[in-house]
# Entry
Amino acid sequence: MVIGCWRGGWVLMDAYPEIFPEWPSFALGTGLHTIFAIFKELFHENCAAVSKKSVLLGRALQVLYIYVFGVSCMGQWRGGWILLDARLIKAAPWAVGLFTCTLVSILMFLRSIRNLVAPPFVICIDNINHVYMFPTRYKKNTRDWSLYILDCAFSVGVIGTLVVFVWRGVWILVDLYVLPEDRETSAVSSLVIGYVIVGVTFCLQPLMRYVCATLEGLPRLIAADAFLLLSFLGTVNVWRGIWNVLDLWLLPENPKLSCWITHVGCFAFLVLLNCSNSILVRGVYIDAEEDKGKCVVFPCHYLRLFFKVEREKKEARRRNLLLASRDFTGLADLKDAENGVLLANSTNPNTVIPANPESLV
# Structure
């Protein structure tokens, strides 16, 4: 759904070049992204206040924010992608590879390889704490506005642009080497290769988590980056495969309608699934920053988070019932005491808890 939404919005921008020219799209997308980064705390506080008063209005503001932010991300990526095409499309494969490896080395030096990974390795639910807040490279705060703005600009303009260029370089290399003479077979092959790598990386995740928990310093960073780069190769192939499959077989005779269907339909479906936040490409995450191997754990726990929320709701209801039961027992004892008939063997309030707490829910 995320890839379909991006494919629809991107190709629609291509269909209306007079409205979405390359340089303005890149500049406007980068500018909006930077503004969202600078004022994220303000957005979060105000929208959280609105959500407390009206859940429906708060949810509507979230969806609007996510959509506008998502379109700005598409504009930034598309603009940078097209600007890079003028340099890379006609270049020799070795030149494309050298250029891409250089950019990957810069990202490794900045400890930002993790930012190359996207769905299916990353799922973001539409929780209010996850919608508006995201980290910047140096995690500066608003106590020093000059450094804070520079941090946001660097995170969006430098790290974000490097990620776009690395994606484009790898995408071109896949175009060049995965059955370039047969587009249909190439699309299916890329899809298969991508999901095989996805399956392998998820199978390797427990092992890599143990390795990264055991290692320290530079070896740990190298192991995590190698695993993330393998995941990135799977991500690019999945995106390329699904993107080209949609281009080839979803209403190829009417590409604009095809794009509208995927863009609007996929976004609406993601809203219903409560994870439309997954279309956003924002925030800078540092490689091997977490302890005990968590640096190689992919944040894609949609069902796990769903059941966790449900368990928390049940626990909250159970506690409320227990408190209400204790209050009721206490009031009853007080009333009996006032009437002079408080029994010596009066039941302790704690004994009203049944053997199975879940029976209260």
In short: The first helix runs from residue 2 to 15. The CA atoms of residues 104 and 179 lie 25 Å apart. The radius of gyration is 26 Å.
